[in-house]
Amino acid sequence: MIRARFYGAAVLGTCVTLAACGDRGAFDPESPYAPGVARNEQAVDATLVGHRLMHAGEYELAIDAFERAAVTHGLTSDILLGIGSASLGLGRLQTAERLLRQALDQDERSPEIWNNLGVVLMELGETSEASQSFQRAYALDDGASDSIRDNLRFALEKLENPEYNEDNDQNYKLVRRGSSDYLIRQIP
Hints:
single chain; mainly alpha; Serine Threonine Protein Phosphatase 5, Tetratricopeptide repeat; two-stranded antiparallel ribbon; 8 helices; 60% helix
């Protein structure tokens, strides 16, 4: 009997609490709790979320976000570029190369894709092909990106002197569409 009253009181308390939560989408800056789901609002584009996660170094989560974006937008060159770049960040070089080449099949005039493919090829030890990728990226970008120029310079130096990398701590720079760029560091 006591147990039944206790459960009845708990259910009643829960119902009263839920009824008080009326407007779930409202943001109260005084509340210590996260706002509820704003059901009438537009969701943030998963591609943008993927780019933000890449910038934060959360490559697995970025891949998930880009895959969600692919459901909405299809496998565009930008989404393939994002997944390929995240795969590179995770050290999945063959997957990254395959995805970036697929992105190039869709958009061969993208300096970002050419640059990131060059980074993958450098990691795979394909310095000659990487330098060609960087040259294409630099030409398509009209020399505007410092990251692409630095990658090209390093690839050409390594091509001339294969021992160049031994004592040099080189930071490869991934480039994305938009305002920021990614940095992939060599693992010693």
